[in-house]
Specification:
CATH architecture: Distorted Sandwich
Low-confidence stretches: none
Mean pLDDT: 98
Oligomer: single chain
Strand content: 35-45%
Distance between the termini: 44 Å
Number of strands: 23
Structural class: mainly beta
CATH class: Mainly Beta
Bound molecules: 6-O-phosphono-beta-D-glucopyranose
Number of helices: 3
Strand order of the largest sheet: 6-7-8-9-23-19-18-13-16
Shape: globular
Largest sheet: 9 strands, antiparallel
Length: about 300
C-alpha cells in the first residue's frame, strides 16, 4: 500500500508515506521550510513546525492514539459536514464523520517557494452515505512550508442544493493557557456553550481563566494568539469562513477526556478553529463549490 503511494505521490527527500503500528497511513513532509505529518484517515494533519520555530506550532497530545475509526487528539481535525452535534440525529457523531473515515491521496507537488503540497479526497462509503446522502467531492489540500496553508473544498456534484457546517479544528501549541490572549474577535458576537448556550458580545481580547467554548459568528477576521511564554505570535488568516471557534477544556473537562496528556497537556494548547457553524452554515448550490482556506504563521517576538 505505501509502496504504491510512495511511487505515485512520494517526493524524494520531501514527502514519504509510512504505515503506523495501528495500520493507518501517515504522510511525512520534510522540506527546507518546515515539517509536518498527516494521517490519511480523516485527512488529519497531526503536526507542523516551520524551521524558524524551536517549538511546534500545531499541538499534538502526547497521549494521541492512532486507531481505525477514531479521531486523533490534537493536530487539525476536519469537522464536516456538520459542526458540533448533528441538528436532528443524536446518534450521528459530533463534528461529523470526515475526521474518522478514510481519505485518498489525489495529488502532490512542490510549490515555487519550496513548500510541499498534498491533496486528499474523502472516500464516500455506504456508512458515510447513510449520514450524508449527497453527491459531492470533499478535498483537503495542505501546503507545508514556513507557513501552513489548508484549503478545504466542497463541490456539490449532485442535482440538489445542500447545507454544510464545517471547521478546521486546529490545536495550536502555546506556552501556558493562562498567559496567552487571542485578538481579532473584539466586539464580535458569540455563542457561549459553557453552562447552556447563550449569545454574548466579546469585550476586548480573549483571555483564559476557565473553560472556554465559544462560536464567534459573522467574522472573517484574522486572529492572533499572543504567547508571552514562548515569545511568539501565531497568526491565523482565513477566507470562506465566517465563524471562529475558541476552545480550551480547562482542567476538569481535560481530566475526563483521558487523552489530553495529563496532568498539564491541556495548558499547552488552545483551539482557534476556522469554521462555518450556527447561523453561518453554508448552502452549496448544485454544481457549485465552496472553499474554506486558512493560513497559519508564527512570528517570534
Ligand atoms: C470544540 C467544541 O470545537 O471541540 C467543544 O466547541 C468540544 O464543545 C471540542 O468539546 C472537542 O471535541 P471532540 O469531539 O474532539 O472531543
Amino acid at each position: 500500500m505505501t509502496t504504491a503511494l510512495n511511487t505515485q505521490f512520494g517526493i524524494n527527500g520531501q514527502l514519504a508515506f509510512r504505515e503506523d503500528a495501528s495500520g493507518l497511513i501517515v504522510a511525512n513532509i520534510n522540506n527546507a521550510l518546515g515539517s509536518a505529518s498527516l494521517c490519511l484517515q480523516g485527512a488529519h494533519l497531526m503536526t507542523w513546525q516551520p524551521r524558524s520555530q524551536t517549538v511546534p506550532v500545531v499541538w499534538l497530545s502526547r497521549d494521541a492514539k492512532l486507531a481505525a475509526g477514531k479521531s486523533i487528539r490534537g493536530g487539525a481535525p476536519v469537522c464536516w459536514p456538520w459542526f458540533g452535534p448533528h441538528a436532528t440525529e443524536a446518534g450521528f457523531p459530533g463534528h461529523g464523520f470526515a475526521r474518522t473515515v478514510p481519505w485518498r491521496v489525489i495529488e502532490s507537488g512542490t510549490e515555487a517557494n519550496g513548500a510541499t503540497r498534498l491533496t486528499l479526497r474523502l472516500v464516500a462509503s455506504d456508512k458515510t452515505r447513510a449520514q450524508w446522502p449527497h453527491d459531492c467531492n470533499v478535498d483537503l489540500t495542505v501546503i507545508v512550508g514556513e507557513t501552513l496553508r489548508m484549503e478545504m473544498s466542497t463541490e456539490n456534484t449532485g442535482a440538489a442544493d445542500f447545507v454544510i457546517g464545517e471547521a478546521l479544528h486546529t490545536y495550536l501549541q502555546i506556552g501556558d493557557i493562562g498567559q496567552v490572549s487571542v485578538t481579532g474577535l473584539e466586539g464580535g458576537e458569540y455563542w457561549d456553550k459553557v453552562g447552556g448556550t447563550n449569545k454574548r458580545k466579546q469585550d476586548g481580547a480573549v483571555s483564559f481563566s476557565g473553560e472556554v467554548d465559544r462560536v464567534y459568528i459573522n467574522t472573517a477576521a484574522e486572529c492572533v494568539i499572543h504567547d508571552d511564554k514562548l515569545r511568539r505570535r501565531i497568526h491565523i488568516a482565513k477566507s470562506g469562513s465566517l465563524s471562529t471557534v475558541v476552545w480550551t477544556p480547562w482542567v476538569e473537562k481535560a481530566n475526563k477526556m483521558g487523552d489530553m496528556g495529563q496532568p498539564d497537556g491541556w495548558r499547552e494548547m488552545v483551539c482557534v478553529e476556522s469554521s462555518n457553524a450556527m447561523e453561518n452554515v453554508v448552502k452549496v448550490a448544485a454544481g457549485s463549490k465552496h472553499t474554506l482556506i486558512v493560513e497559519y504563521r508564527a512570528a517570534s517576538l
